[in-house]
Protein: Enoyl reductase (ER) domain-containing protein
Organism: Helobdella robusta
Amino acid sequence: MKAIVVSAFGGPDVLKYFGNHEMLKVLGDHQIFIKVSHAGVNPVDTYKRAGNYQPSSPKPPYTPGSDGAGLVHLCGPKVTKFKPGDRVYFCDFQTGSYAEYCTVSEDRAYRLHDNLSFEQGAAIGFHTSLPTVLSLLKEKLEKAKRFLFTEPVEGSAWPAARLPSTSASKSLAQLALKKARWNGASEVLNHREDGYMELLKKGQPIDVIIEMLANVNLQKDLDLIAEEGVIVIVGSRDRAEILPRSIMMKESLVTAVSLFRCTHETWKEMGDFFDRGQRDGWVRPVIGKVYKLHEANLAHEEVIKHQAGSQGKILLSIDD
């Protein structure tokens, strides 16, 4: 099968394309074998490839990728949720989605409705921590008057309009992505432009911040957050330098969520959440640049540097 293989840690050039890579032939009882249409490219993929991912990078040789979408090809003997031919999206950390086929646990795959394309399905997977954030912030969001959702360019599957409760009077999205207005944000600000902090500071302080790029924005979040406000970190690329007194003086709370610590029940909750979103039409991932599988090295450069100006989720098309 076609696949990308990392045989040694290093830069994007270690992503090697193979047209006849060996295919896994044995499935576990609760595993499914998926013919992948598109795979999501995430910053974390580049950290693992470089060998500096914490707590640990996979041991080479391995195939990168955690999320994607495609058709169920085979099912393990005890699988009850799917059958061959079902359209699915997934987020799993087993055999890698940068390949023509990959193995996924039954409980890490979810039905992809007909109103979404495989490209859109591949853009959902790594953002499934959204309902965990909602659960964590339920009481705070009900009282929030001003809300900030920060998101780097490569990930735009999160439906911003669904994050605050309907009682929240204003939703701000700190994005370099004008398409976010289509996804529900009432204001769109580009954090790469001068003066955006001054615009955010207008009006009352922000009660809740969902932070996707903490190494860049965390201290700015602490300057913006209201007294007793909450900052939830769901993404970071490196260390963050902050002034702890910024937290102390406002008695704010900084917490975090991680897909790697999710329980079976939490994965099910996340799947149910996005199933409702597909059905009701508010899960509308924005797709950026789509690369061919053999261009995985270019996709890894773009997901970090954005030299091509990608506006949305970066993907690999497996059928190249």
Summary: The chain has two domains: 3-127+263-317, 130-257. The chain has nine helices and 15 strands.
